[in-house]
Each structure stands twice: as structure tokens, then as C-alpha cells.
Amino acid sequence: MDDSTFQEYEDEIQALEEEIRLLTEQYEEIRQESTCFSDEEILESIKSLRRETQGETKGHESLSDLEAELESLEKDLSFLAALTGFHFTSHSKKTVEKTQDRTVQKYRLSGRCHSLSFQLEFQLLEMPNNEKVSAVVSDLSIVMDSREDSNVSKFVSSTEEHGDLLTFFRSISTYAEWFEHRKRTFLHFK
């Protein structure tokens, strides 16, 4: 075997080792981001679920009632997705800090609104206040394919500065709907 063939194999081995290293890092990041539960919490959840399905817990008389309620909830979710245009493809929640006075959680959401895809990452600070819980959004980061529209980029930057998720969802819903209308209109004239 000549040196050039040997070098090609060495290069391929190094590339595969690098790919394995990157995939291992991604796996570790994903594993750390997901909310972890102890064995005791998992067992308690299983016991609770069994009690609910065996008895008349929470007003459900049988497993068929639970299935009917699940079907109803799925229909409601489908209706809301059709109404708003939002389809969430992934989400994760990680508790960063939890004390008696406050809870800080980090959220990641991915999805699309009509044909526009987006990714959100933010922290939610929850503090109990008498009988209410106040929540504050911070470290909001929005990634969107804004195409050639600089107004969308300006809007995203402004929303990130103010940490206003409600405005983002309301505005992007309207924009994405009209974006679809404009796209169909331009295709019609081509």
C-alpha cells in the first residue's frame, strides 16, 4: 500500500473520530438540558398514575373516560394549531435555580408559524407574591429565518431587548399569515 492511500485512511479515521467527539458532546448537552427526575420521583409518579386509573380520581370513572378526554384535548390542540398557525416541534425545560423564594427555569422552543420557522430560548423567573406568582422573562433569544425583510430583524431585536414573548407570538402570527398570502399572490402573477 502506498503512502497516499495510507494518508487517505488516516484522514478518514481522524474525521470520524472528530465526528464521534462532536456527537458525544451534543449527546451530553441534550442529556444535561433535559429535566432529570430521581428514581423516587419516577416511582411516585407511576404509583400516582396507577391510583388514578384504578379509582375515581379527579372525577374520572374509567379508562374510557380518560381516553375520551385525551381525544377531546387533542382535538382542541389541533383546532388551536389551525387557528393560530403555530406548530411546536420541540421544547425543553431546565430548572436552573430553585429556592423557596424563587424559581429560575430555562426554556427552549422550536416550531413554525405557517411557513416561518423560529427558535426561542429564554429564562423564566417565578416569584411567589402573596397568593399569586409573578413571572419575568429574561435572556430572550429569538432565531428566525427573516429572509430579505429587514423589518423582521428589527422587530426580533426589539422583542429580545424588551423580553416580550406575548408581542412576539401575536405579531409573528399576523406577519406569517400575511407572508403566506403575499407568497401565493406573487406566485399567481409569475
Automatic annotation (TrEMBL):
Disulfide bond listed as a keyword: no
Keyword Iron: no
InterPro entries xref list: CENP-P
GO biological process terms held by the UniProt record: CENP-A containing chromatin assembly
One GO CC annotation: nucleus
Keywords: Coiled coil
Coiled coil (residue ranges): 6-33
Protein's name in the database: CENPP protein
Organism this protein belongs to: Cisticola juncidis
Organism phylogeny: Eukaryota, Metazoa, Chordata, Craniata, Vertebrata
